[in-house]
Amino acid sequence: MNGGKKQKARRYWEGDAPDPPKSSKKRQPPPDEAAAAATKASGIAGPPGDRTIRKRTRKGDVAAAAKAAGTPAPPSGGKSGSGASLNPRRPAGDRGPSKSVWTSSRYREEKQLRTWARQRLSGATDPFPGPAPLSADKLKKFRRGGEKPAPPARHLTRARLSRAEDGAEESSAWAARAELLLPEEPGFLEGSDGEDTATVRQRDIADAVDIASAAKYFSLKLDQFGPYRLDYSSTGRHLTLGGRRGHLAALDWPTKSLSCEINVMEAVRDVRFLHLETMVAVAQRRWLHIYDNQGIELHCVRRCDRVARLEFLPFHFLLATASETGFLTYLDVSLGKIVASHLPRAGRLDVMAQNPHNAVVHLGHGNGTVTLWSPAMKEPLVKVLCHKGGVRAVAVDPTGTYMATSGLDRQLKIFDLRGAGAYRPLTTRPLALGAAHLAYSQRGLLAAAAGDVVDVYRPRDADAGLARPYLSHRLHGHVHGLRFCPFEDVLGVGHAQGFTSMLVPGAGEPNFDGLANNPYRSKKQRQEWEVKALLEKIPAELIGLDPHALGRVDVETMEQLKKDRIERLGFDPDAPAPFQPRAKKKGRSSTANLLKRKRKVADEDKREFVRQRLREKERDQAEPKKKGKPRPPGSRPSALDRFDR
């Protein structure tokens, strides 16, 4: 206790203490000499004048010594007979030891043991101290952009940019180290010596894999309302099916749990999940409808009529619709309004795909061309002649590097979308029947459906490529829809007899980002993700061919804008103000003097430039003299060498 609390709690058996609280018991007389001796032996402080060295003892010893001396023992932690409790007080000037010998020694001993244990694990005896080194290839894999020097800016801005660069480097290093925590690896189907993997049947693959993977191969016989279009959610957990005769169903396909099943009593041309699996966009015969996961109609967009194909841009919350009337419309599902509507003037639009890298929409037309569209432009960004006949299908790989097209000329072509040689065919393969549907997987596999046969190719394989298929499967009806399931080695096929889920080893990405598309997220996590996605929504005006163009400066455009501004205003507003000499007295502000002073200031930059050039020239001439000019062999010194400069 400190301060006034010491004065309040005092031992009532000390000589200078105030009277104890009133009690029913009779007060004991002051301690005599024997009691004082017993108190001294037990370590209890005596009167104020006593200089006895106090020792730390247990409470039981103090009580026993006080009882032997005939003095009352110190009060315990419980209540006394009067109901009051007094705390003991040390005499003035006697603070006692701060810590017992046993406690301090035990503390030092335990601390030493902890230090030794730490050294044995990662201290001086650690043969590899510090963090593990990282290779440049791993850092390059996770680095977002190259290292950029700080621009010439103000001190605070330069420091902020430097901190941002350091944070980006640190995050890439942590991501490279955490790559070891990704246990899953992609695999492929490998045949025996001389065996063609295209001859392996789906039943054989299902028998060779584990039970959980074998359960992903199944078929749904729905021959009454077909043919079917399909779509998977962004997490790969949910599946929606839309039949041409009005059948609409949504289910959790790994568990085969049906969410809803209705009949819209109208032709269904295409279906697409929106940003969540709780909302499905359905292109019906007349208008565009949006349903929830219980089959309840949420919206009916009458401005989008006779829609044939749907594509959803997840980072922009845009639903792109291609109609039979030839209109390309962008609907913002977060605001509920149409942000753009284009008329390509190419007839019916029933071939559409999106580029996941830059959110550009690819449209295939009957004249053999493919046009690339952005909601910010009324005209196509690029127009490519791909086939001699009409285009039947278009697909773009997830990296935005390759585009696959098929046409009525029975040609399957792969185009390169990068660099100066972009939009040129890399590979061409003739097909017996033109592919009516194309789809890319997350790892670059290409599925092509012609009639009732589905072939899967590996375009990145240098040996096979499009020469021979990787897998082949024949169905019971003509194919009307293809879609790879995200994060799964599964290809969904919608056909005239229902739906079939195929096993395609190596198609899906084995590791997913738990903060972006988590297949196992809860309802609360889904709600939090939706809020964050809405906050990070990208405006539709930023969609273009180069998604990184926003961070660069267009120098030519800036110079042209500056020139137009000067022509419009008649002067350069960014030019420095002309020099105006200060008026002086005694005739020094005459016209000639003013012109002389103006000319002197105007030519100061030129004079400084000339001085700098002269200094550089003198320095260049002085360097050979210091080193000494080499003389030609056989020449003799001359008296005129001293005048050589």
TrEMBL record:
Subcellular localization(s) per the UniProt record: Nucleus, Nucleolus
Region (Disordered): 1-169, 567-645
A GO cellular component annotation in the UniProt record: nucleolus
SMART domains for this protein: BING4CT (SM01033), WD40 (SM00320)
Superkingdom of the source species: Eukaryota
Pfam family, any one: WD40
Biased composition (Basic and acidic residues): 601-625
InterPro entries registered for this protein in UniProt: BING4_C_dom (IPR012952), WD40/YVTN_repeat-like_dom_sf (IPR015943), WD40_repeat_dom_sf (IPR036322), WD40_rpt (IPR001680), WDR46/Utp7 (IPR040315)
Biased composition (Basic residues): 1-10
Record domain BING4 C-terminal: where: 469-547
Subunit architecture: Part of the small subunit (SSU) processome, composed of more than 70 proteins and the RNA chaperone small nucleolar RNA (snoRNA) U3. Interacts with DDX21, NCL, NOP2 and EBNA1BP2.
Protein name, per record: WD repeat-containing protein 46
Organism whose genome encodes this protein: Ornithorhynchus anatinus
Taxonomic path: Eukaryota, Metazoa, Chordata, Craniata, Vertebrata
